[in-house]
Amino acid sequence: MARGGIPASPLPPRQGVDAQRYRMPQGGPWRTLRDHLVERLAAGLSADEVDRMLREGEFVDASGRPVPADAAFVPRSVVWAHRDLPTEPPLAEDVVVRHRDERLVVVDKPHDMATMPRGDHVAGSALARARVVTGLDRLAPAHRLDRPTAGVLLLTTEQRWRGAYQSLFAQGRVHKEYLAVAPVRDDLELPLVRRTRLLKEHGVHQAREVPGEPNADTLVELLEQCDGLGLYRLTPRTGRTHQLRAQLSGLGIPIVGDPLYPVDRTPPPGTVRDAETPALQLVSAVLAFDDPVDGTPRRFTTRRSLSTWPPRREDD
After folding, report:
1. I want to staple 195 with a disulfide (CB 3.0 to 4.6 A). Which of 63, 145, 214, 305 is the partner?
2. Could you give all domains of the chain from N- to C-terminal order, each with its CATH number?
3. Residues 6+ apart with CB under 8 A from 52
């Protein structure tokens, strides 16, 4: 069973993407399943396309049997089907598997790749690509990285392991280190611990530092500096949305290549970053924890680098 008692899909993923689950409402005016699907899917599928999918057996029941084209509408019943995948921006890089065992797969995610299928990033998401690369259809992420952030991402191989590893992240029992390139402020005494209250409102791209009890805590260390830029190690002790990006921006040292902080310059959906524009110079460098299943110390590190470090000199 999937989380919350929802049965696993009877259809295997397609290009690493799960089939969509449709649960019928408790009642309604529809005589047939087809009538309900035509109304329900009108925003994305024509009636002719729904008819074609039913005719060709693309809607299946929980056992994987094709649903007849004239099937009656049954309240609270469930059907599954794959939807056409959106046209996506081409992948500049793919995930790279760094570790694989019975319970875990760890990949190095490139910049500009979503962790989960979403919007214009579905088959090109890290989850879908990791499933294709490994052949493991039930992979699921134990945590998430922002789409612009690169680095180590941990996935579980099966549902039975998922809760234990997701709980590590939810309970703050994972040691995480990031590397970032950002400007250097001579008047900023480092290392420091940045403790602020972050507010991320629904529908608003940016998180904001606001007055109140701190809920975001990050150790900021300057490792190296060159030509006005620094290589920073960031060790978050909490896991708020956009925590590192918002807090460094609040310190007056926004991360190089950030399209969101301090000013929202988020490109339109489907836009591909041009070669002259650096990716967000932030990478998830280290994940370390005691394994919740057998207690073994685990430590995974990235091999990805930051393209603007060290800075290029004028005569390079």
Report:
1. 214
2. 20-81 (3.10.290), 96-301 (3.30.2350.10)
3. none
